[in-house]
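Running this now, will post back.
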Amino acid sequence: MKTSNIFKGVLLCATMMMAASCADLDLQPLTEPSSGTWNSKLDEVRISVNDLYRAYPYNLETRWFTDGHTDDFCHRNKVYDVPAATLTSSTSWIETTWSDTYKAISRCNRVLESLDKLGYSSDEAKRLAAEARLFRAYFYARLISLWGDVPFCTGTITIEEAREMGRTPVSEILPVIYSDYDYAYENLPESNIVQGIWRVNRYVAASLKCRIALTMKDWEIARDAARLVMDSRQYSLYPDFGALFRDKTMDNGEYIFCIANSIELGQSSSVNSFMLRTTVSSGASGFPSWDLLAAFECTDGKPIDESPLFDPHNPYLNRDPRCNETFVAPGSVVYGCVYNPSPSAKTVLLDGKSVTNKDSKINDQYAAPTGTCLRKGAQDEWRTGKNVSENPTIIIRYADVLLMYAEAKIELGELDASMLNAINDVRARAYKTTRDNTAAYPALALSDQNTMRLAVRKERRVEFAWEGRRFFDLLRWDGWMEKAFSHDYYAFPTKQGMVDMEKAGDYYWPSTPEIDECGFADFKPMFDAGKIVRVLPRKYDSRFPLLPIPAIEVSISNGKISQNPGW
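Update: finished.
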C-alpha cells in the first residue's frame, strides 16, 4: 500500500477536526461540532485521535532537526545552539516542543475522559482508548527524557489549575507511562491496518516502552519489551538499507511507527535547500560531518585508522555500505547530477548535460566546505521546487528494537548468542546478506561487556545517522555528549588551499584521523599541520543532559515550576 492510500482516512479526518475546532463559535450552528460539544460521539472521538497522527507533535523527530544539534551535522557558517552552548530557556524550539507536547497530551486526556463519559464498550472504543494512552505515554516519555521532573496530569484541568501545578518527580510519572504502554499493548490489535487505514498496533507500544526504559536504565523492562516485538515475527529488516529510506510505503516490514507525509493530503516534511547540493539548488548550508564520515568502519570491520583498506585520499572506498548510502560518494549520481566536490572538477553532468560544478568550493562559495552531501532518503523530486518530502517521518523501526535489545542485554551482563545475533542481524543487512553468512560481512564476535557496549553504541551511530536518534543517544549515554562536542568542526581550506592540497596529493584528507575506542575521530593534527581549517568550535554545556524549561512557563507558574539547574 502507498502512504497516501493507507493514511487517507486519518489525514482527511484530522483536517476536518482542525477546521471544526478553529471555527468561529459565535457564528457556528449548534448542530455543528465545536470545542465545547466535540467528542460527544464516537465518530468525533475517532477524529480527535486521528489528529495525533498529524505532523505537528513530531517536529522534534524530524531527522534533520535534532541531528543539527549533534556531531553528525555541520553547517556552512554556524554551529547550532546545543553544540555551540548557546541554548537558553527562551530558544524558540524549546518553547515549541514543550507546548506541542502538552497540546498532544491534553488531546489524549480529553479523548479518554470523553470515552469514559460516553460509556462505550465497543471494540473500536477500547482501541481508541488504547491509542490515546499510547500517545500520552509517548509524549510524557519525551518530556521526562528531555526535562526530567515535569508538570503531570491525566485529566482535563483549568488554566488556573495549570498555573498552580508544580513539577512531578520522574519516579511518579514513569510508572504511569509504563502502565499506559501496557494497556495499549493489551488492547491494540497485532496488525497496523484497521479497516484499510494504518494505525498504531500493540508492537508500537512495546517498542516505545523499550525506548523509554532504556533511557531510564530500566534494563530488564527494556529487554522484555524488545523481546515481545522480536518474538512476534511481525517485523523484519528491509533487505536493502539504502532503498529503505527511498521507499515511501508504510508497510515495508521494518517501520514499526512512522508519520505519513502526503502532499495531496496537505502533510509533508520540509526539504531545506541544505538537503540538496549546490549544483541543483541555491546553496549547501548544512550537510553530514567529517566526524560521521570517519565513524563508518571499513569492509573488514576495522576502524579506518586500523584497516589497511582505508585510503584517506578516497575515504568512500572499501567502507561499510551504509557509508555510501548515507553520504553521496564522489562520482555517483544524485538528483540527476554527478557529484564531485574536488578542486579540479570544473564541470559535471546534470541530466546528461555538462554544467558548472557548483559543488566544489573552487567554483561556488556556497558549496559544502566539507565536500559532503546527504544521500539517505534522497528523492529526485526534492529538486523540483516543491521543497517538501513525502518520505515517512520514522519514529521507530525494527533495527532500533534489535539494537536496544542488545544494549539492554549488555548492560545486564547477559552476553549471550541472542544479544550478539541482534547486532549481527543489523550489520549483515547493511551488506545485503544474512547473519549466518559470515563470509559476506564482518560479523562481530562475542567479547567482554565494555567491548560490546562500545560496539553497539558505534553501531547505532552509523545505522541511524540523520534519523534523529543521535541527539537522544548522546543525552542518555553518560559523558558522551561531552565527548562529541570536544571535537571541533573542520573542513577543507581556502580555495587556493584546496588547489594546493590536490597538487600535493593530500586531497581528500591529508592523512588518516585517529579513531578512539568510542569511535570519535581526531582531525586536530591535520589542523595543527595547516592542512585543513577549523570552521567553528563546538562546546559542551555542563548543564546537560536536561534542557531548560521554557522561561515563559516558569514565569507564569506562580513560583510552582522551578528551572532546571544552571538554566
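Residues 92-118 form the longest helix (27 residues). More later if anyone needs it.
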